[in-house]
Each structure stands twice: as structure tokens, then as C-alpha cells.
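Key result, reporting period 2: structure in, sequence out.
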């Protein structure tokens, strides 16, 4: 230090290592499984009221089940000014992954992430972000892009996102909260989309969902959802989705829903869903069936749904049904 009393003019180099990182947590009465070797090195320069970090290196290694590396620099370690820090990590330790729980990804067995923390024009962000999560059931979620984190370390919070999303689920039941509660099990689901905007005006655009693959019963949805996150609550202010349903036979669809329907042959349906969680319309509905004997049905029109306060969902119908047959026999 040039001035010890005022902590000015620092020129320090700090190094540290631990053969087992879990021992360090043990000093804080925090129990963790073995985490491997920790190595740390950094330099501190300038005044401690605004310390500059010319370089910092941190690595966690030794156990292939958990890896972490951090490397970069900071013009001001207290505010994040001039931040340029690369990070990468992966974990398959059940004890650590058990701390991370989401409704759509339970029982994680892999988490991998990487990115670069940057400060530019007074804003902190994570650029080139890559996140991969895989569950024990085979569900996988990938995110790539950037997130905005505010102006400085003292007020660090998620402010905005620009992420390309991809998800693969072994079961279509995960879509019930997105499409409708009675969506049957039809097999694997592949979903893609781009999530952009500040938290108070999010857009999930270029959304595509394909459930059922090449099976006999298939659901496909494309469109846009806008909404916001307020605390831990997610609300949709506008939904605009176009969906199609295809079933090789009526029996397959009836069995999926657990209902009895006469065999009307192959089913194809298309509709547009617009509105929000409380009030929405099924528009441009076009449902058709056709048997091998030439019996054809066509149901077209629209349905307007409305939910007042906590009351049950109500619907107003405007439908037309047409039936044609080559013979009456």
C-alpha cells in the first residue's frame, strides 16, 4: 500500500488452494459432498474504495462430476465496472443438483453452463450464455443468448433476456399448463422458441411445439405468447397460437381422452387460440373426419371462453356441423 491508513495505492497478489473444497465449507458448518481441488489467484491494484482486479483465476477440478473455471478482470470490483469475466462449469453430483428444482425439470442429473460477464455503457450482462439441463427422466432444456443484470453489483438482478430456447420432454403431459389441462399423453415433445424483452414485457416468439412425433396421434402448435414476470408470478397478456391435431383413427383420440366416440375415421383439426389466461377465443376452428366408406364430417366456427374472477370457465359457441355420405347404407 502507498497509504495504509486510507487503503490507497494497493498492489497485491493473492493466491490460495485447497486439496478438498468441501473442507472449506466445513469451516462454515456447511456440509457438502467432496468437490475436488480449489485453486485461486488474483491481483488487486489501486485504492480499496474502487479496487481494480487486473486478473482473477479460479478453478475447481479433480472430480469429473463437478467442474468450474472463472477467469477475467474488473476495473472496479465493488461495482462491476469494466467487468470481462469468462466462466464455465458442469455438475452431475446429485447432492448439489438436488438444490435446483423446477416444475418442468425435477431430478436433475446434469447441469452445464458457460458465458461471459461483461460491463458496457454502465450495464452489466452475461453474453454468450449457454445453459444445458438434463433430468433423470430424459427431459432436456437448452438456452443460449444473453441476459441483462442491471447497472452494478450492488443492484444485481435479472432485468432482460434474449435467449434461444430448446426443450425435449419424453412425455406430452408437461404441455398441459401451456395448451389445455386435458391434453392426453401422446409421447415425446420437442419445443423451440425465442424469449426476449424486459421482465415486465416478455415475448416468447417463434414458438413451435411438436408432440407425438410421427406417431398415430400428433399435436403441433406455433405462435407467440407475451407476458410479464412479477415476483415469482408469470402472467400472459396476449396469446396467439395456431394448433393442429391429427389422429389416424377416432379410436386413438378417444382412448387418449378416456371417452367413448363412434369410429369416424381419421381426424384432422386446426384452430387459432387468441387472448389470455382469463379470456380467450378458439377461432377458425376446422375439424374434419373421414371414414374409408366415404362418411365425412366437418365442424367449423369459433368458441369464446371467459373466466370471471375465480369462477369456472364458460364458453359461447358459434359452430356449424356438416355431414356428407356417399350412401345411406
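The corresponding designed sequence is given below.
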Amino acid at each position: 500500500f502507498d497509504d495504509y491508513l486510507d487503503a490507497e495505492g494497493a498492489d497485491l497478489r493473492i493466491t490460495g488452494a485447497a486439496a478438498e473444497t468441501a473442507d472449506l465449507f466445513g469451516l462454515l458448518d456447511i456440509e457438502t459432498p467432496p468437490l475436488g481441488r480449489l485453486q485461486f489467484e488474483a491481483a488487486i491494484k489501486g485504492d480499496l474504495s474502487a479496487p481494480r482486479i487486473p486478473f482473477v483465476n479460479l478453478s475447481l477440478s479433480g472430480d469429473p462430476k463437478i467442474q468450474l473455471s472463472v477467469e477475467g478482470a474488473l476495473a472496479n470490483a465493488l461495482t462491476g465496472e469494466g467487468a470481462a469475466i469468462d466462466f464455465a462449469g458442469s455438475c452431475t453430483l446429485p447432492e448439489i443438483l438436488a438444490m435446483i428444482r423446477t416444475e418442468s425439470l425435477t431430478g436433475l442429473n446434469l447441469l452445464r453452463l458457460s458465458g461471459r460477464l461483461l460491463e458496457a455503457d454502465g450495464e452489466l450482462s452475461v453474453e454468450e450464455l449457454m445453459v444445458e439441463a438434463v433430468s433423470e427422466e430424459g427431459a432436456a432444456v437448452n438456452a443460449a443468448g444473453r441476459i441483462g443484470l442491471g447497472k452494478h453489483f450492488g443492484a444485481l438482478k435479472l432485468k432482460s433476456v434474449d435467449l434461444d430456447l430448446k426443450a425435449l420432454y419424453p412425455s406430452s403431459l408437461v404441455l398441459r399448463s401451456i395448451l389445455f389441462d386435458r391434453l392426453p399423453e401422446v409421447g415425446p415433445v420437442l419445443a423451440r422458441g425465442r424469449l426476449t424483452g424486459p421482465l415486465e414485457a416478455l415475448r416468447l416468439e417463434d414458438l413451435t411445439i411438436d408432440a407425438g412425433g410421427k406417431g398415430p396421434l400428433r399435436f403441433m402448435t406455433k405462435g407467440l405468447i407475451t407476458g410479464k414476470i412479477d415476483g415469482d408470478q408469470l402472467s400472459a397478456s396476449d396469446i396467439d397460437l395456431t394448433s393442429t391435431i391429427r389422429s389416424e383413427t377416432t379410436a386413438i383420440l378417444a382412448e387418449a381422452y378416456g371417452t367413448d366416440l363412434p369410429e369416424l375415421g381419421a381426424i384432422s383439426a386446426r384452430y387459432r387460440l387468441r387472448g389470455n389466461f382469463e379470456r380467450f377465443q378458439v377461432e377458425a376452428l376446422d375439424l374434419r373426419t373421414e371414414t374409408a366408406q366415404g362418411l365425412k364430417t366437418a365442424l367449423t366456427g369459433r368458441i369464446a371462453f371467459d373466466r370471471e374472477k375465480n369462477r369456472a370457465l364458460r364458453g359461447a359457441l358459434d359452430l356449424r356441423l356438416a355431414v356428407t355420405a356417399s350412401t345411406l347404407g
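The longest strand covers residues 233-247. The mean pLDDT is 86. This case is discussed further under Risks and Mitigation.
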